[in-house]
Design brief:
Layout (H helix, E strand, L loop, with lengths): L6 E4 L4 H4 L7 E6 L13 E4 L5 H10 L6 E5 L6 H11 L6 H8 L1 H11 L7 E5 L12 E5 L9 E3 L5 H19 L6 E6 L4 E9 L5 E3 L3 E5 L10 E6 L5 H18 L4 E10 L2 E8 L6 H9 L3 H9 L13 E7 L5 E7 L10 E6 L6 E2 L10 E7 L2 H14 L1 E5 L3
Parallel strand pairs: 1-2, 1-4, 2-3
Antiparallel strand pairs: 5-8, 6-7, 6-8, 9-10, 9-11, 9-13, 11-12, 12-15, 13-14, 15-19, 16-18, 16-20, 17-19
């Protein structure tokens, strides 16, 4: 297919970038020195960059000979939020700016902004230094989390002040390992938040250049701890949400408070919240789409969030026009302990599960596996869709109880 003169620039390879030609555009992607993307022929232009060197990225974008042909910029990676803002600035595109990006990438700075705008939507929080023995002075139990990292890595639960010394010491050891693994600087400055029990949900939305918001349906989240797993990843994402309309409106109000406080325009947003007796608390927000959300919305409603994101990036009008009303879910399965993957059993006969749409194994036998908090990916995930939401929820339990991930412990 002939390349289009109009280029959409992506901060990294994603599904939409690989099929952008069919939508009438050419693709360009940032690529780091340690990346080896599969099927590179599916991308039209590669832009090498050094992660962490923002000045070099800005200058690279300014020097790129095809920059006049860039009609939009899209980011789907949490860890490249600041790079997205740098590209917006260099190429003169609307969307997330550097101040907003740095606030949303730093959980403590986000908490402080929300404290000014809508303090009732913040859990009690405190900045902590893992090198200090003095425990945090906010209500326990706590979640101790890095201020700026990605996914659910390096999160620990602290039950009380007497637990602090053990938790901080363990986190300091894990920080060193994570810095080596990812080539980043994390340091000892973390965030402590009071742990809130409630219903966890997420919302994806689009803010247009005039500040108008297009909401997409709320998604229910099942955290791993409800499956008895001592980890902080999301085990299941469910659509539709079983929350009532008052709870949905309250959650939208919490998200809108931070959107207005930061002055965000021309950007997608993904927000995680917890509803405690109907009261929303904002956990975090990022200027990107949530994982798996576009596929879930396509299966449930016939609406592609990726294509809405593209429309926003290139300056087209946004509209939510659902074609159907089905249920969808995504299940992520992790091992019960770290080690070497030796086998996956129980996958026979899964094609008889009524709502199973697809299942993908992400880790091969013989590779090391572990918990999300240690930086590991899920071993496999499954996507489900059906007309009956209750059927989907039953099938999630069938998958959970059928598949067994066998691990050889590390010596």
């Amino acid at each position: 297919m002939k390349k289009s003169a109009s280029i959409v620039l992506f901060t990294g390879v994603q599904r939409l970038a690989r099929r952008i030609r069919s939508l009438g555009y050419s693709s360009a992607c940032l690529v780091a020195p340690d990346e080896d993307p599969p099927a590179p022929h599916e991308i039209d232009h590669w832009i090498p960059f050094r992660p962490g060197d923002l000045v070099d990225l800005h200058e690279t974008a300014l020097r790129w000979k095809l920059r006049p042909h860039v009609v939009g910029i899209i980011n789907r990676r949490e860890r490249r939020t600041v790079e997205h803002a740098i590209l917006n600035r260099a190429l003169g595109k609307p969307g997330i700016d550097l101040r907003q990006a740095r606030i949303l990438r730093d959980k403590l700075r986000m908490r402080r902004v929300l404290q000014e705008a809508a303090p009732q939507m913040n859990p009690p929080f405190q900045a902590v230094d893992l090198r200090r023995r003095e425990p945090p002075h906010i209500p326990y139990p706590l979640l101790i989390k890095p201020r700026s990292f990605f996914k659910s890595q390096l999160i620990e639960r602290c039950e009380g002040p007497e637990d602090w010394d053990r938790i901080r010491t363990r986190l300091l050891r894990r920080v060193t390992a994570a810095e080596r693994r990812h080539g980043v600087q994390i340091g000892s400055h973390f965030l402590a938040e009071t742990y809130l029990e409630g219903h966890e949900v997420s919302i994806d939305l689009f803010v247009d250049p005039q500040g108008r918001i297009l909401w997409t349906p709320m998604v229910d989240l099942v955290p791993a701890r409800l499956w008895g797993i001592h980890d902080f990843h999301v085990a299941v994402r469910h659509l539709p949400s079983f929350r009532n309309e008052a709870e949905k409106k309250a959650a939208q109000g919490a998200v809108m408070a931070l959107v207005r406080a930061l002055g965000i325009q021309a950007s997608p947003l993904h927000a995680d919240l917890v509803l405690v007796q109907g009261r929303p608390f904002l956990l975090e927000m990022a200027p990107r789409l949530g994982g798996y959300r576009s596929e879930m919305m396509e299966l449930a409603h016939g609406c592609s969030l990726d294509e809405l994101n593209l429309s926003l990036a290139v300056g087209k009008e946004l509209a939510w026009r659902p074609k159907r009303n089905r249920a969808a879910a995504v299940v992520e399965l992790f091992p019960s302990r770290p080690g070497q993957l030796s086998a996956i059993s129980g996958t026979e006969g899964l094609d008889r599960i009524p709502s199973l749409h697809r299942i993908r194994q992400r880790v091969e036998v013989g590779q090391h596996v572990g918990f999300a908090r240690e930086g590991f990916r899920c071993v496999l995930f499954a996507v489900l869709a059906h007309d009956d939401p209750n059927q989907v929820r039953r099938d999630v339990e069938v998958l959970r109880n059928s598949i067994h991930i066998q691990v050889t412990p590390e010596e």
